[in-house]
Amino acid sequence: MRKLKLNELGRISVNEFKESEKTPIVVVLDNVRSLHNVGSIFRTSDAFRLEAVYLCGITSTPPHKEIHKTALGAQDSVEWHYFNETTDAVEKLKSEGYLAIGIEQVEGSTDLNTFKPDTELKYAVVFGNEVKGVDQKVINQCDSCIEIPQYGTKHSFNVSVTAGIVLWELAKPWLRKQ
């Protein structure tokens, strides 16, 4: 076994990424405060060729050296938009036919293990603040909420870890087709 060199990985260019067919998922960040988390989520969004990242409220926007530190340039390939209010971002996406899914522990949430994405639909996936989670006003707009099952003593994951887990599971049906 030999570790592959970067030029052997067959990655596409930023321009090719922008022209490529996207996985019909938009990430919505509801007041995510850590620039490193924002950068990491950009990088995950690039890896799964997601449509866009919507940055809302106190969530910082590119260009920023701390976002770049973890995004490693993904902030240049993935389309992004900023909204003062997360509710405005979700309202816009829903008006464009996206199903809004909050990633939060709520009454009646769906276990990630049982959620099956419908490849005929488009999804807006909302991730919340590192301390407060997804705001209740935003939860009220969501069509449903997904929860990651956890078996230890802690009640949550870091938001960038959550995004990696959830986005991988949601994107899989589209990624298998490529």
From TrEMBL:
KW Transferase (keyword) present: yes
Chain ranges of the tRNA/rRNA methyltransferase SpoU type domain: 25-168
SUPFAM superfamilies assigned: alpha/beta knot
Keyword Methyltransferase applies: yes
Top-level taxon of origin: Bacteria
GO biological process assignments: methylation; RNA processing
Keywords per UniProt: Methyltransferase, Transferase
Pfam families from the UniProt entry: SpoU_methylase
Molecular functions per Gene Ontology: RNA binding; RNA methyltransferase activity
CDD domains for this protein: SpoU-like (cd18097)
GO cellular component: cytosol
Protein name: RNA methyltransferase
Species of the source: Marinilabilia rubra
